[in-house]
Amino acid sequence: MGNIERHRAAVRARLLGSDCVRAGPGSISWKINREVIVVAAWGRAILLQLAHPAVAAGVHHHSSFRGSLLSSFRRFHSTVGAMLALTFGDTDQVIDAAAGINAIHDRVRGDSYSAHDPDLQRWVHATLLDSIPLTYEQLVGPLTPAERDRYCVEAAIMEPLLGMPAGWLPRDSAEVDSYMRRMVAGDSLVVTDASRALARSVLFPPRWYLMWPVFRGLQVLTIGSLPPSIREAYGFGWRAKDERAFARWTTMLRTSVRLLPRFVREWPMARRGLSNLPLRLDDPARLVIDDRGVATRR
Predict the structure, then answer these.
(1) What does the DSSP 8-state code read for residue 234?
(2) With contact defined as beta carbons under 8 Å apart, do 154 and 294 qualify?
(3) Is 259 exposed, middle or buried (0-12, 13-18, 19+ CB in 10 A)?
C-alpha cells in the first residue's frame, strides 16, 4: 500500500470514529467559503502563521514560497483546489484532499518542528478561523455571533482529517479570540528573518506589479488587518495615509462584490453543489441534515 493509500485509509477510519461531521448546503461554511473574495483572508492568516518560528522554519525549508510569480499562482491554484474539496467535495474528494495534505506534512519536519505537531496545527487553524470571518465581514457582509460560533464548530472536521486529538480545536469565536490574544501577547510568536523573507515572498513576489490590482489590494488588506504588534515585528510601516488606503480598498472591493453576479463571485465548485449529500461512510443512517443543511449524527 502506497503512502497516499495509507493516509486515505487512516482518514476514513478517523472519520468513522469521530463525532465531527461535515456541514452541507445551507451551512455557514458554505455561505462563507463559497465567496471567491474570501481568499483575501489567506494573506493575513499566512503572515500570522509565519510569525510562529517553527511554522516559518518548516515553510522555509520545505516550501516554494520564494519562487517566481508563476510558481506563486501554481501554489495558489493547488491550495485553492484542496480547500474547495474539503468544503464542497464529495466523500472521496474530501478524503483525497486530506490524504494529500497529510502526505505533504510527512515531509515537513526538522529538529524543531513537524507539520503533524498538534500545537502548530491548532495555531494554523486558529489563524484561519480568525481571518476568514473577519475578511467576510469586511468585504461581503455581517455575520451574527451564532454564525461565527457555528463556523468554528463546522471547521472542527479538520481534527479527524488531519489526525488531531478530539476536542483540540476551538468550538466558538470567544475561544478563538482568547487563544489569539494569548498567542499574540505571549512569547510563542517571534518574527524571524525567515518569517520576514517569506512574508515578502507572499506579498511581493517577483514581478508582482504585473498583477498590480490583485497584489496591491492583498498587500493593503493583509498588512492593515494584522495585529499592530505583529505588523511592527514584520517591519511594515502603517501611517495615516495607509489607513486611508485600507479604507478605500475595503470600500471598493465590498462595492464590487455586491455588484457582481453570483456566477462571478462564487466558486464554480460551490455552485455545482457537489456536496448535496452529507458525508456518508459505511453508516449513512447515522447522519441527519437539519433545516439549515447541517449534518449531525443520530
Answers:
(1) H
(2) yes
(3) exposed
Kindly state the helix (H) or strand (E) to which residue 287 belongs, with its residue range: strand 287-289
Cell 488531531 belongs to which residue? 164
What is the distance between the alpha carbons of residues 66 and 202, in angstroms, rounded to a whole number?
Answer: 8
- Residue 209's Cβ-count burial label (10 Å; 0-12, 13-18, 19+) is exposed
Asked if residue 275 has pLDDT above 50, the reply is no
Residues in the chain: 298
Do 287 and 280 touch, CB atoms closer than 8 A? yes
Instruction: Give the whole-angstrom CA distance, residue 119 versus residue 141.
Output: 32
Dihedral sign of CA atoms 204, 235, 220, 45 in order: positive
User: 71: pLDDT confidence band, cut at 50, 70 and 90?
Assistant: low
Question: Which pLDDT value is given to residue 29?
Answer: 95
The pair phi, psi for residue 296, each rounded to 5°, is -135, 155
Helices (runs of H) and strands (runs of E) counted in the chain: 16, 2
For residue 104, the surrounding DSSP H or E stretch is: helix 91-107
The three cell numbers locating residue 101 = 495534505
- The cell for 24 is 452541507
For residue range 231-245, what is the model confidence (pLDDT) as tens digits?
999 999 999 999 999
Alpha-carbon distances of 61 from 54, 71, 153, 236, rounded to whole Å: 11, 16, 33, 24
Whether 126 and 176 have beta carbons less than 8 Å apart is answered as yes
Rounded-to-integer distance, Cα 197 and Cα 60, Å: 9
Q: Which residues contact 234 (CB under 8 A, 6 or more apart)?
A: 47, 51, 191, 195, 196, 199, 226
